[in-house]
Amino acid sequence: MSEPTLLVLDTAPSPRLGRLTGRARIRYTDGAGLAARLPEADVLLVWDFASDAVRAAWPGEGPRPAWVHTASAGVDRLLCPELIASDTVLTNARGIFERPVAEYVTALMLAFAKDLPGTLDLQQRRQWRHRESGTLANSRAVVVGAGPIGREIARLLMPLGVKVALVGRTARRTVHGPEDLDRLAALADWVICAAPLTEATRGLFDARFFGLMQPSARFVNVGRGPVVVEEDLADALRKRWIAGAALDVFEQEPLGPTSPLWDVPDLIVSPHMSGDTVGWRDRLGEQFVAMYELWLAGSPLPNVVDKRRGYAPFPGPGE
Amino acid sequence: MSEPTLLVLDTAPSPRLGRLTGRARIRYTDGAGLAARLPEADVLLVWDFASDAVRAAWPGEGPRPAWVHTASAGVDRLLCPELIASDTVLTNARGIFERPVAEYVTALMLAFAKDLPGTLDLQQRRQWRHRESGTLANSRAVVVGAGPIGREIARLLMPLGVKVALVGRTARRTVHGPEDLDRLAALADWVICAAPLTEATRGLFDARFFGLMQPSARFVNVGRGPVVVEEDLADALRKRWIAGAALDVFEQEPLGPTSPLWDVPDLIVSPHMSGDTVGWRDRLGEQFVAMYELWLAGSPLPNVVDKRRGYAPFPGPGE
Q1: Residue B281 is a catalytic residue
Q2: Which numeric CATH code is attached to B5-96+279-296?
Q3: Is the pLDDT at A150 greater than 80, yes or no?
Q4: A contacts of B107 (beta carbons < 8 Å)
Q5: Which residue of B has its CA nearest to A276?
Q6: Chain A residue closest in CA terms to B152
Q7: Is the fold of A5-96+279-296 the same as that of A98-269?
Q8: Residue pLDDT, tens place only, B205-246
Q9: Are A109 and A190 in contact (CB under 8 A)?
């Protein structure tokens, strides 16, 4: 049997792919070259997950790969009607980002509770100003997004004494449905967004939503930028409808130097880094290699995305 | 029976003391007036725990209170040979500060791991610069001080996947003795000081100690300032012997505006606030009121300090 062709969207993926030598004909392409090379690919590895190239190239002419894997948790940048309607299997990088993102969210919440930004600012001005701080213990968090990342956030927060409510697409045993979100958010000290970008979540966090949060509450987004109406969040912070917010994801990434978000009061802006801990590219490479070996052997793949819903259901089929 | 005289060192303690109306003749004094009023006191409540007035006034003439309570965990500022040798019972505020301090330490560790200071600095400069961050999961921490605060730090860190070694004054079942400190510190990603200030801990963290830590490791002090040789720590940071440090306590408090510590690289300076969460003064007042009621009833007091060791042993007698 001849080697399958593995097309990689990006120029410099993890060295771990070298392990596939002799089992894959590996070809690299940038976004501009994707449309021309897509027909020859048996498998497409979307290493540059911030690119819109797949959504742009997919509707073109010719055969399409049987399997597409993205080195990310979210799949919103890939999906187009033609990919959704096709027989192509789409998988994501579930298992890599959960713990890092959960630690990052915990870091932000503790930084807010202890006013670390205020401490660092006072330090720069050489001012000793004792303040009373808040606690995570006995506070209430609503985590929107009940997939593996949302669940891991809950798992880290609960031993810290945070009372966590998970909100997902549909109510189930330990998960609230969207119909409970307003009621829960109105009582919460923290609203954490770890939701995928879908038509159900786009623009979910808007002026109406921030208006029903408590003035002492804080909002954190580690999901996808367009889930938040950024202007509404900036307004809510300026008017002190809520006490603080942190955004790690944005409508436009990277955030340009002229964005008004950089200096909104009580807003922490970070460069989409919550899941990216030292060694993450190697772990993504290792994960793909293991999945490729399953695929070669004809075994079922894990992390299969429900293309119509726009995320990998958890638990997946047979898990 | 006439009311006992309760002398309070400070001018504005918790309103909760009002509950003792009719059961205590409450008198207030500042540090300057303490020596003159000490002989009339049955009980001394050290509300201004940052004052050295007790140590200064105690050796004077006249009777001394049977019981001294301090609204703090550490007792180093009170102890003098005459108080140690006396029959006076000394108690501390064990139970109030453990969880807040443990949350604060966790906040600092996560802020270092995720480079939150770097993120806030880049935000001020409107720069989007993605970085890979560290994790708490599977890192190693040595917590020096195996009292209630050190144990609570360990209790919060362990569910985050941190491997914690506790070091106390003497080796016991789950605690290492001081003889293990160097070996543990050389392998650690984090060294956390939650130790009382005693003759055994004064100057414990010096150039020799920082020299044996890993260059990637960080040091946090939430115990007492003089446990650290501040110049040596500043030097170790400037020479990159270690990757970062946070001090919440100092040899001199408040830290003056001319202190060189404010701008040591990779050092976070905070104003002795780790244990002071909203409502802490009320909780300290409630704790004292409950203890005063035990004392009035002739019941044994909790939180009794071993004056010769310089801290309240945990667990205490009969606990």
Answers
A1: no
A2: 3.40.50.720
A3: yes
A4: 107, 110-111, 113-114, 116
A5: B132
A6: A160
A7: yes
A8: 999 999 999 999 999 999 999 999 999 999 999 999 999 999
A9: yes
Which entry of A272, A281, A286, A309 is annotated as an active-site residue?
A272
Section A102-124 average pLDDT: 98
* ipTM confidence: 0.96
User: What is the per-residue pLDDT across B75-114, written as a single tens digit (0 to 9) for each?
Assistant: 999 999 999 999 999 999 999 999 999 999 999 999 999 9
Q: Indicate if A253 belongs to the active site.
A: yes
* Closest residue in chain B to residue A269, using alpha carbons only: B123
Task: Please report, for chain A, the start and end positions of each structural domain, with discontinuous segments joined by +.
Answer: 5-96+279-296, 98-269
Bridge partners (DSSP) of residue A227 are none
Q: Is A61 a catalytic residue?
A: no
Token pair for A109: 């919440």
- Which of the residues A110, A157, A249, A284 would you substitute to probe the B interface, choosing the one with the greatest number of B C-beta atoms within 10 Å? A110
Sequence-ordered list of residues with C-beta below 8 angstroms from that of B109, at least 6 positions apart, any chain: B136, B141, B157, B162, B190, B192, B218, B220
Supply the mean pLDDT for chain A: 96
Q: What is the DSSP string of B66-92?
A: SEEEESSS--TTT--HHHHHSS-EEE-
Cβ–Cβ below 8 Å for A110 and B113: no
Query: Is A133 in contact with B254 (Cβ distance < 8 A)?
Result: no
Residue A210 pLDDT more than 70? Answer: yes
Each residue of A177-199: b (16+ CB within 10 Å) or e?
eeeebeebbeebbbbbbbbbbbe
Residue from B120, B133, B155 to probe the interface with A (highest A Cβ count within 10 Å): B133
Whole-angstrom distance, CA of residue A173 vs CA of residue B74: 47
In the 8-state DSSP scheme, what is residue B187? H
Choose among A126, A269, A273: nearest Cβ to B262. Answer: A126
pLDDT at B318: 56
CATH of B98-269, one of 3.40.50.300, 3.40.50.720, 3.40.190.10, 3.40.1190.10: 3.40.50.720
The answer, as to whether pTM is greater than 0.95, is yes
Question: Per-residue DSSP letters for A39-56?
Answer: GG-SEEEE--TT--HHHH
Instruction: Compute the distance between CA of residue B62 and CA of residue B60 in angstroms, rounded to an integer.
Output: 7
8 Å CB contact of A271 and B160: no
pLDDT tens per residue across span B148-170: 999 999 999 999 999 999 999 99
